[in-house]
């Protein structure tokens, strides 16, 4: 009774083995035609028919590698060597999958196994060296990250990814460093690539959030951090970033609200606190510096405001608002060259008529600042009244008049005398312009700079002005007609200064 059954069973096994071999042959045919999905289907049927044949898994692993499904390829090659520990190609394939997935240690173990089976295997020797190199780049990258040398990490990860092209871990580390280097579009594209393949990858979610956070899209960033923490509740980096993002947003909003309420002291303080939260967040911090500069300018802290704008520009040298704010502060502190430089930068970047006007105004102020300042010559403010201008002239003209201090002047060296003469001339020139309403307006507007001539001093005869001013007021002083020679006693001068002549 038994015998026929055994025979039948044996026959059935032969049929199945033949069938499995048939599937494998078909798989091989598709594989050599590079039709890997069909090859995969036939190898799968071969495995279903004969699940304990190592070479079927080996072949399907090779196919899966061509389909770039490396994780599944790894599982198949592991199954192959589990069934047959002497299956050399299986070990080699497992090693290659480990390499592609970025697991250098495991790869090395597989290649060692091949070399135990066949010490002269060139491919295993070569691949083992590649695994060693990969380990070395990983070590360098870890060291670089510790030292915050993110460029080095990116370099090492690029080298590592040339070998381990399917390694998410390396891609994420590279993306994180790109984000820390401010290369957000690149970082974002790497993170998005991974999320397309694996939407629950907490690291990729974290890096995507980090890019948004660094680009000052804080609300959206928080959503990604929260998602990352949902996928991996222990994700320390995501937790920290989430906390920073929320704190930064809260302080910044508070500061902006205080500013809107015209509470500049409070705004200044809140921006200062916000700036301590995360020194890595360049874009938000640039805005915070610029906002603090605006509050500072309102508080008349112009030098601090200039420093804040400079810090904002250091963080983001394309930040037009910071250049504009700084230029305004330079104008208000009469640092016109600096103002012109900033407005030039602004106008070069954004050629609007407003920017052009600002630049022109600054350029005019700069020119005006370089010409003789008649107000300073007379020692008066820009708002001085007609009366004040006259008083100032009287005082200064007498002070520097060649005849005014006979004692001092006779004892003075020729250099001092010359200096006094020059000042006397300047005082006359200043008075001529500022006492004439038309000339004064032209001077104040800088129109005297448009055409040459008017104010270069040659048109002035200081003595004529002096004579016109003091003469005919019945003071009893007679002036010698020869220019520059006057006779005053010290007493007369005192009188002259004390008395109102106009
Ligand atoms: C293979 O690489 C490992 C390190 O990855 C090394 O320790 C071992 O000596 C290498 N083996 C051969 C045969 O080169
Ligand atoms: C000068 O007058 C203008 C307007 O008349 C005023 O805004 C400005 O504050 C005054 N400056 C000084 C220094 O008094």
UniProtKB/TrEMBL annotation:
Domain (J) ranges: 373-447
Tell me where the signal peptide lies. Answer: 1-22
Mind listing the UniProt keywords for this protein, alphabetically? Acetylation, Chaperone, Cytoplasm, Cytoskeleton, Nucleus, Phosphoprotein, Repeat, Signal, TPR repeat
Instruction: Give the protein's recorded name.
Output: DnaJ homolog subfamily C member 7
Assign the protein's first listed, main location to one coarse class.
cytoplasm
| UniProt-annotated location(s) | Cytoplasm, Cytoskeleton; Nucleus
Which InterPro entries does the entry mention? DnaJ_domain, J_dom_sf, TPR-like_helical_dom_sf, TPR_2, TPR_rpt
Q: Where are the TPR repeats?
A: 20-53, 88-121, 202-235, 248-281, 320-353
Q: Name one Pfam family in it.
A: TPR_8
Q: An example Gene Ontology cellular component term from the record?
A: cytoskeleton
Query: What this chain does, per the record?
Result: Acts as a co-chaperone regulating the molecular chaperones HSP70 and HSP90 in folding of steroid receptors, such as the glucocorticoid receptor and the progesterone receptor. Proposed to act as a recycling chaperone by facilitating the return of chaperone substrates to early stages of chaperoning if further folding is required. In vitro, induces ATP-independent dissociation of HSP90 but not of HSP70 from the chaperone-substrate complexes. Recruits NR1I3 to the cytoplasm.
- Per the record, the domain of life is Eukaryota
């Amino acid at each position: 009774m038994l015998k026929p059954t055994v025979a039948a069973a044996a026959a059935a096994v032969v049929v199945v083995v033949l069938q499995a071999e048939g599937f494998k042959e078909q798989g091989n045919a598709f594989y050599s035609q590079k039709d890997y999905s069909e090859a995969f289907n036939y190898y799968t049927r071969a495995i279903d028919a004969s699940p304990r044949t190592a070479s079927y898994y080996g072949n399907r692993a090779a196919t899966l590698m061509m389909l770039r499904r490396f994780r599944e390829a790894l599982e198949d090659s592991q199954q192959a060597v589990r069934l047959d520990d002497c299956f050399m190609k299986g070990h080699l394939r497992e090693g290659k999958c480990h390499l592609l997935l970025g697991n250098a240690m495991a790869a090395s173990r597989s290649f060692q196994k091949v070399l135990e089976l066949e010490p002269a295997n060139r491919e295993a020797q070569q691949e083992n060296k590649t695994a060693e190199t990969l380990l070395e780049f990983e070590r360098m990258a870890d060291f670089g990250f510790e030292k915050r040398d993110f460029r080095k990490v990116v370099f090492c990860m690029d080298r590592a990814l040339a070998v381990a092209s399917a390694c998410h871990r390396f891609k994420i580390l590279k993306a994180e460093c790109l984000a820390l280097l401010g290369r957000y579009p690149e970082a974002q594209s790497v993170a998005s690539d991974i999320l397309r393949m694996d939407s629950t990858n907490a690291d990729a979610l974290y890096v995507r959030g980090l890019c948004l956070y660094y680009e000052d899209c804080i609300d959206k960033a928080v959503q990604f951090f929260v998602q990352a923490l949902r996928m991996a509740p222990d994700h320390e980096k995501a937790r920290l970033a989430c906390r920073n993002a929320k704190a930064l947003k809260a302080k910044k909003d508070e500061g902006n609200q205080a500013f809107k309420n015209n509470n500049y002291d409070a705004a200044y303080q809140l921006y200062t606190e916000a700036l301590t939260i995360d020194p890595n967040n360049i874009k938000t911090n640039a805005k915070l510096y610029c906002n603090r500069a605006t509050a500072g300018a309102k508080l008349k802290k112009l030098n601090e405001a200039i420093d804040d704008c400079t810090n904002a520009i250091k963080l983001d040298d394309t930040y037009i608002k910071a250049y504009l704010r700084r230029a305004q502060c330079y104008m208000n502190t009469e640092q016109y060259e600096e103002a012109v430089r900033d407005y030039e930068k602004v106008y070069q970047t954004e050629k609007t008529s407003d920017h052009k006007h600002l630049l022109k105004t600054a350029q005019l102020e700069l020119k005006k600042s370089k010409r003789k300042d008649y107000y300073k010559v007379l020692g008066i403010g820009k708002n001085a009244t007609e009366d004040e201008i006259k008083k100032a002239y009287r005082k200064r003209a007498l002070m520097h008049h060649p005849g005014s201090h006979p004692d001092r002047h006779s004892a003075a060296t020729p250099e001092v005398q010359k200096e006094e003469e020059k000042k006397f001339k300047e005082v006359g020139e200043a008075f001529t312009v500022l006492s004439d309403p038309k000339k004064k307006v032209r001077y104040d507007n800088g129109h005297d700079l448009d055409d040459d001539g008017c104010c270069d001093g040659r048109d002035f005869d200081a003595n004529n002005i002096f004579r016109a001013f003091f003469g005919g007021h019945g003071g009893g002083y007679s002036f010698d007609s020869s220019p520059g020679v006057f006779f005053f006693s010290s007493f007369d001068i005192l009188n002259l200064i004390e008395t109102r002549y106009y």
